[in-house]
Amino acid sequence: MSQLSAEQEVAVSIAEQKQTLDILDQLMKPEVQQSLTVLVDNLPKLAEMVTLMTKAYDFAQNIATDKVLINDFAQGIGEFVKPVQEKAKGIATAAIEAGERSQEAAGSTVGLFAMLKMLKDPEVQKTLRFAQAFLNVLAERKNEKA
Q1: 27 Cβ neighbours under 8 A, 6+ residues apart
Q2: How far apart are CA 43 and CA 32, in angstroms?
Q3: Residues in CB range of 86: below 8 A, 6 or more apart
Q4: How far is CA 46 from each of CA 43, 49, 50, 52, 53, rounded to the nearest angstrom?
Q5: pLDDT of res. 2
Q6: Rounded CA gap, 48 and 44, in Å?
Q7: CB atoms closer than 10 angstroms to residue 70
Q8: Confidence (pTM)
Q9: Sign of the alpha-carbon torsion through 99, 131, 124, 114
């Protein structure tokens, strides 16, 4: 048994020597020596870069695993989106209701006097001013391109 372990030790020793020779052969190549010289010259920069990358990784890891920060971020986005969502829902329900009302009144006609009466409505005036301004902007842009 001890003879077998001695043979194993010799085999391991020979393998290690072969690996050492392979490494020495590699180190003797001029291109490897040139690469090593460049690496050694740039070690301070490489060390600084690795340090910065490690700090960035640690920071990102802390942020990604911080439950409180994630919850605060989600709540902040929710507070920003909620008013927009409520306004969009309000506009959508108003459009649906207006569509239903227009379907109910589909059989009746709008006469000239009814239109003149509608023109006095402040909401109609506001909408007409917006439409006029919007069409003016479109016309100006069309003239600029031409």
Answers
A1: 33, 36
A2: 16
A3: none
A4: 5, 5, 6, 10, 10
A5: 54
A6: 6
A7: 12
A8: 0.39
A9: negative
Tell me which amino acid residue 124 is. Answer: V
Residue 32 and residue 26 in contact, taking contact as beta carbons nearer than 8 Å:
yes
| 73 DSSP assignment | H
pLDDT tens per residue across span 24-59: 778 788 888 898 899 899 999 999 999 999 999 999
Kindly report, residue by residue over 56-115, the tens digit of the pLDDT: 999 999 888 888 888 888 888 988 888 899 999 999 999 999 889 888 887 788 888 888
User: Which position has the token pair 């109609």?
Assistant: 124
CA torsion angle for 60, 62, 65, 70 (degrees, to 10)? -80
For residue 23, count other CB atoms closer than 10 A to its CB: 10
Question: If DSSP codes are grouped into helix, strand and coil, which group holds residue 81?
Answer: helix
